[in-house]
């Protein structure tokens, strides 16, 4: 059975709406891993890399900040990825949100509160500066972008297309609903898996 690794957005968790929708949609067809990601980006990347080494997923799917991570990890480990509404400038996103915050979906450890500060923003800045360094011609057709036409937070399709070939649109906002995940994300994931099987 194939394995899909879903990486949630910055304020979300492995229990967010798209994560649960993917688990339900692929029930009996593929294993969908939806871990809670660490707050700090270098720790998150190390966590994802270790998880990939252990679980050997066939496809990575991200949303927002999760897509930021997926874009950096997928070329390194050589697997395809679907980047939902990727946010490639997390520093801009975080700068106006400094202070105490809460995750919008439950975390497995029960810790819902966190702090955005300059240290966290600087950590993202370090990664942003080199986020596309592992792009190459082999990955241009294996990393796809999916962009919500009502997204008011991330507008990075032009930047995505500077590095990758295939972008798709869906008539939704930044975080897909359960229905949008089923209608728009699932078929593209299935196509990535089919391409994997027949390459």
Task: Give a structural overview.
This protein is an alpha/beta fold and 199 residues long. The chain has a single domain, classed as 3-Layer(aba) Sandwich (Rossmann fold), CATH 3.40.50. It contains seven helices and eight strands. It has helices at 17-25, 41-55, 65-77, 90-95, 118-128, 157-161, 178-198, and strands at residues 2-7, 30-33, 59-63, 81-84, 99-102, 113-116, 143-148, 167-170. The strands form two sheets. The protein has a six-stranded parallel sheet, with helices on both faces. A two-stranded antiparallel sheet has the order 5-6. Strand 3 (59-63), helix 3 and strand 4 (81-84) form a beta-alpha-beta unit. The longest helix is centred in the last third of the chain and has 21 residues, at 178-198.
Keywords for this entry:
199 residues, alpha/beta, Rossmann fold, six-stranded parallel sheet, two-stranded antiparallel sheet
């Amino acid at each position: 059975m194939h394995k899909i690794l879903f990486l949630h957005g910055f304020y979300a968790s492995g229990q967010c709406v798209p994560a649960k929708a993917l688990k339900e949609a692929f029930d009996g067809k593929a294993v969908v891993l939806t871990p809670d990601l660490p707050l700090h980006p270098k720790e998150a990347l190390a966590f994802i890399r270790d998880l990939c080494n252990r679980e050997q997923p066939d496809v990575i799917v991200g949303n927002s900040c999760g897509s930021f991570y997926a874009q950096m990890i997928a070329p390194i480990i050589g697997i395809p990825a679907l980047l939902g509404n990727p946010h490639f400038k997390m520093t801009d996103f975080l700068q106006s949100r400094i202070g105490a915050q809460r995750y919008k979906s439950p975390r497995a450890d029960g810790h819902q509160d966190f702090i955005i500060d300059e240290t966290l923003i600087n950590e993202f800045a370090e990664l942003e500066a080199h986020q596309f360094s592992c792009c190459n011609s082999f990955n241009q057709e294996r990393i796809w972008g999916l962009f919500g036409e009502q997204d008011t937070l991330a507008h990075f399709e032009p930047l995505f297309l500077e590095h990758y070939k295939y972008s798709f649109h869906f008539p939704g906002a930044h975080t897909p609903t359960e229905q949008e995940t089923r209608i728009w994300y699932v078929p593209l994931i299935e196509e990535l898996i089919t391409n994997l099987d027949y390459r």
